[in-house]
Amino acid sequence: MENPLLLFPQLNISASKDKPYYKVMKSAIKEEPHKASKPGAKQKRNRLSLLLQKPEFHERDHLSKPGNLTKAASVSPEEAVKWGESFDKLLSEKAGLDAFTKFLKTEFSEENIEFWIACEDYKKSKSTHELLPKAKTIFETFIQKDAPKEVNLDFHTKEVTSQNIGQPLPTTFDAAQNTVYRLMEQDSYPRFLRSDPYLNLVKGRNPARPTLRRRSRSFTVNDFQGVRPDFTVW
């Protein structure tokens, strides 16, 4: 009988460590634990899935949806009804101003209320030294051509406002502010009063997504009487 070591030389455990085969195996043994220590794609997906399931991950997105414009604020129906008395009444209350601002964001016209708020802050400046930087910021943000949040002003109002920026006064933006105020009062404010979030506040309930129901019907033998099978579909 032939020596088994001659038939299967790979079983020769006494082979020299200088052989190439031993070097390859030794290198593979060292690399294997290193590869195992790296997180696989499946582990990364699991971690991402757990992150997406956390409530705080979706909290900001949840409040920005149209159905949750006023959900974060505790507003009584009586207070919400007062918002419908006048546009000035709505803006004079913080909760009303916040609700209206969120509503304008759903219509992508929040620059109007942001400009109005900036003008209100501008008029509260205590010294002429504060007026110049604020006036420049308001002009560059809301009024000048291609401003990032340019409001809709007629040519005359925009021209007069632009001429007064060099020497601003507390009344510099009054004409522009009144124009934007009337625009919101006549256009956006009526739509806000007809919106579902506001009507739900008046009724004293939070906005809720309607539940979809599927009608089910049991067929009887009478339903199939007089019906002939169509064999052409086979």
Automatic annotation (TrEMBL):
Ribosomal protein as UniProt keyword: no
UniProt-listed GO biological process terms: negative regulation of signal transduction
Organism domain of life: Eukaryota
Record-annotated RGS domain positions: 86-202
Keyword terms of this UniProt record: Signal transduction inhibitor
InterPro entries: RGS, RGS_sf, RGS_subdom1/3, RGS_subdomain_2
One protein family per Pfam: RGS
Gene3D superfamilies, per database record: 1.10.196.10, Regulator of G-protein Signalling 4, domain 2 (1.10.167.10)
The protein's name in its UniProt record: RGS18 protein
Species of provenance: Rhagologus leucostigma
